[in-house]
Specification:
The complex is a heterodimer of chains A (407) and B (323). By secondary structure, chain A is of the alpha/beta class. Chain A is 42% helix and 21% strand. Chain A folds into two domains: 196 residues, 3-Layer(aba) Sandwich (Rossmann fold), CATH 3.40.50; 161 residues, Rossmann fold (3-Layer(aba) Sandwich), CATH 3.40.50.2300. Classes of the chains: A alpha/beta (407), B mainly alpha (323).
Chain lengths: 407, 323
């Protein structure tokens, strides 16, 4: 029993010291002169690559705005507070609690993975704090009628394919398509959206399969898919899986008229690096490309590349545009409390490098911008816009040549 | 001695009850609630892994089942997810029953391996049964209660229940049987202890309380998906780390471990920027290297070091029963 006594004393000491420590610093921040914007991103963990890109873009946009004197609103400075969610949802909740209750952030932004975004959005809604989503794209998030949650630069996953349908109707005219997707929130939301439009248009889905994200051997799945003989493949994958799939298609000499990726992996520079020549002629839907005609898009791309030595993709553009939306909303806000900022966000009508942003209620979504999407294709190692026709940078290649015919 | 211990017990409980009165900041209460959730899972794991010596790499299975019991009640039947706190542990226990009956007949790593695969099986199952579980899109609920104090007291109640139950089991005949199985199964069998039965008697409450923690987690965090609650590294392995850090086979070890793990993890995350995981990992390595029995487990060594300035290395590492 003596030992047990000592254990208990330890626990007691622990509880008391935590109490003292915590109540000592519980006063919160003293600087009341700043308008604080909390940004929650995965800065460590498996999604850190994207988190870091988004953080850099936020900071780059902030510096530009500062140089233009736009970071001071109503005599107060806008201050960004970055928090790391480690790609884990309970950490995302901790970060949200900290930003809102300790740091007294006036609004929140960020949100990369769907799971973390869901948790941040739920907490923001219960605490009545405006939350502007950067990337998280699960359909449901803006379908719950949550008036505190805004999604501007990110499309709901099922709407990533908007531009693709125009191209399918006019060019590809497929009868039979194959659908593969990673078994994640983003993957299954995208697949669900794709399926329902196929049904409306009377396109047969002859192969429909989810796979475990991070798998290595796709050959059995690809072999089965070849037997189904689809006119076109629609695939939703992140970058490593995407490169594996196209490489293994090449190894199997599996020819199809067109492979279209559903955003995410198929548009990234890393996809081209990993897949090598197998990436050629792979098409994808996307929300943004550097060559897009919106004002500032190519400037952002070049400036980022120069400053950080890496090419940004649409994730970075989302963060960059989001910073501009925040600055604009705060500039117009009459009061820097939650309702003031919410009202001002709702009235947003701004042109960004992601296109025009407005928060509208449509098709069951609320505070959701109507996204503009593109179809892009890798040609000669470069990502080119091929659809919609009026913004294309090159002509599409369809049907794509068989593997054997390529040099 | 016994009276003193009871007094300290009451003091600890009173201090714990007063926590929300002193700490009003919701953020700090949130961290403490997370600590309590991990204490519950750790204590439950410890009964099986610490005292009975049956290491489980798949407690995420029970945790996730508990969480999904609560979430799916709301999702399918619109029943308050709080009923999951009762239903979840029952389902987790029912699932653990056949596993124990089959695996505990064997020795060696079979149970650990079976549990490892059990966690993964449930993760895949819940990802792919999307009609029933909503698949990878997860289950989200909107909690009716937002007061942190409420969640604090509920979780504290579950923790006290778990600690009390574990303590009673460990200090009963069953507890001694479990330790004897851990130390030498052959000797235990030759003394007439039905080892399979008693290993099951450790597994069932362990699964029960882990499921309860899972159901509470669903109510508190309000969003789950299969990759979160059936996660191998973030749940199954994390609970082992929590227990190792605090002290295997000690009553308070998992609680102390959870407190240090969560508190330091959050402190580093909030202050150290991108290096936080690295620093945290190194620290955990150091603690496990120099305090292999965990902080509570090495309490005697630490105490002696402080008193006499010369510790007995590895002092009572093989002692019969801690607690």
């Amino acid at each position: 029993m003596k030992k047990s006594g000592w254990q208990l004393v330890t626990v007691l000491v622990l509880i008391i010291s935590v109490m003292l420590l915590v109540s000592g610093c519980g006063g919160g921040d003293k600087s009341k002169d700043d308008v604080k914007v909390g940004v929650i991103l995965p800065l460590t963990g498996s999604e850190a690559m994207f988190g870091a890109m988004e953080k850099n873009s936020f900071e780059m946009a902030y510096d530009e705005l500062k140089a233009a004197g736009k970071t001071t609103v109503g005599g107060k400075d806008i201050k960004l507070l970055f928090e790391d969610d480690q790609g884990k949802q309970d950490v995302a909740k901790s970060a949200t609690e900290k930003l809102v209750n300790q740091d007294k952030a006036a609004m929140l932004s960020g949100g990369y993975s769907s799971a973390c975004t869901n948790v941040i959005a739920g907490s923001a809604q219960t605490m009545n704090i405006p939350f502007l989503i950067v990337t998280g794209s699960a359909d449901d998030i803006t379908k719950k009628g949550w008036q505190w949650v805004f999604r501007g630069t990110a499309a709901p996953a099922s709407k990533y394919t908007g531009a693709l349908w125009g191209m399918l109707d006019n060019v590809v005219k497929p009868k039979n398509v194959a659908l593969i997707y990673e078994n994640t929130d983003f993957g299954s939301s995208s697949a669900k959206g794709f399926r329902s439009v196929c049904q409306q248009k009377g396109i047969n889905i002859v192969f429909d399969q989810a796979y475990e994200a991070g798998a290595i051997d796709f050959k059995p799945m690809l072999a089965n898919m070849r037997n189904a003989n689809p006119d076109m493949i629609f695939a939703v994958s992140y970058v490593m899986d995407a490169s594996m799939i196209v490489k293994q298609m090449k190894e199997l000499d599996f020819n199809t008229k067109l492979l279209v990726g559903g955003g995410a992996g198929y548009t990234m520079p890393e996809f081209k690096d990993n897949a090598g020549s197998a990436s050629e002629y792979v098409a994808s839907t996307t929300l943004w490309v550097p060559s897009v005609t919106w004002p500032g898009a190519s400037d952002y791309f070049n400036k980022y590349k120069q400053k950080y030595g890496k090419e940004p993709d649409y994730h970075g553009a989302q963060a960059y545009a989001t910073m501009y939306i925040i600055a604009d909303a705060l500039k117009r806000a009459t009061e820097f409390n939650n309702t003031g900022i919410q009202k001002s966000l709702k009235a947003t009508d701004i042109m960004t490098i992601m296109g025009p942003i407005k928060f509208e209620d449509w098709e069951g979504y609320s505070n959701q911008n109507k996204p503009v999407t593109y179809v892009v294709q890798w040609q000669k190692g470069k990502l080119e816009v091929i659809w919609p026709e009026k913004v294309k940078s090159v002509n599409y290649v369809y049907p794509v040549p068989d593997w054997k015919e390529r040099t | 001695m016994k009276n003193k211990s009871v007094l300290i017990n009451i003091a600890v409980l009173l201090a714990a009850l007063l926590v929300p009165v002193v700490i009003k900041a919701p953020y700090h209460l949130h961290i403490i609630i997370l600590i309590i959730i991990w204490s519950i899972i750790g204590t439950a794991w410890n009964l099986l892994g610490g005292y009975a010596g049956q290491v489980s790499f798949g407690h995420a299975a029970f945790f996730g089942l508990g969480a999904y019991s609560a979430g799916l009640l709301k999702f399918h039947f619109d029943i308050s997810p709080w009923w999951g706190v009762l239903l979840g542990p029952i389902i987790a226990t029912l699932v653990s029953l056949p596993i124990g009956l089959i695996c505990f007949r064997l020795r060696g790593p079979y149970f650990a391996l079976a549990m490892l695969s059990l966690g993964e099986i449930f993760r895949l199952l819940f990802t792919n049964l999307s009609n029933f579980t909503n698949g990878a899109r997860g289950v989200m609920i909107m909690p009716d209660i937002t007061s942190k104090m409420f969640y604090y007291y509920i979780s504290l109640f579950i923790l006290v229940l778990t600690l009390f139950t574990t303590y009673r089991i460990v200090n009963s005949k069953v507890g001694y049987y479990l330790v004897s199985i851990r130390e030498d199964q052959d000797a235990a069998t030759s003394l007439g202890i039905p080892t399979t039965l008693y290993k099951n008697l450790a597994l069932l409450p362990s699964a029960f309380f882990t499921g309860m923690a899972g159901a509470f987690y669903m109510n508190y965090v309000a969003f789950i998906d299969p990759n979160i609650v059936f996660n191998l590294s973030n749940v199954s392995v994390m609970v082992i780390l929590v227990v190792m850090l605090g002290g295997v086979a000690t009553t308070w070890g998992p609680t102390v471990g959870a407190a240090i793990y969560i508190f330091l993890g959050e402190l580093f995350r909030a202050t150290l920027g991108s290096a936080n995981v690295l620093v945290f990992g190194v620290l955990v390595c150091l603690i496990i290297l120099f305090l292999p029995n965990g902080i509570v487990g090495e309490m005697n060594t630490l105490k002696r070091l402080v008193r006499r300035k010369k510790g007995l290395p590895g002092g009572e590492r093989n002692e019969f029963l801690r607690g």
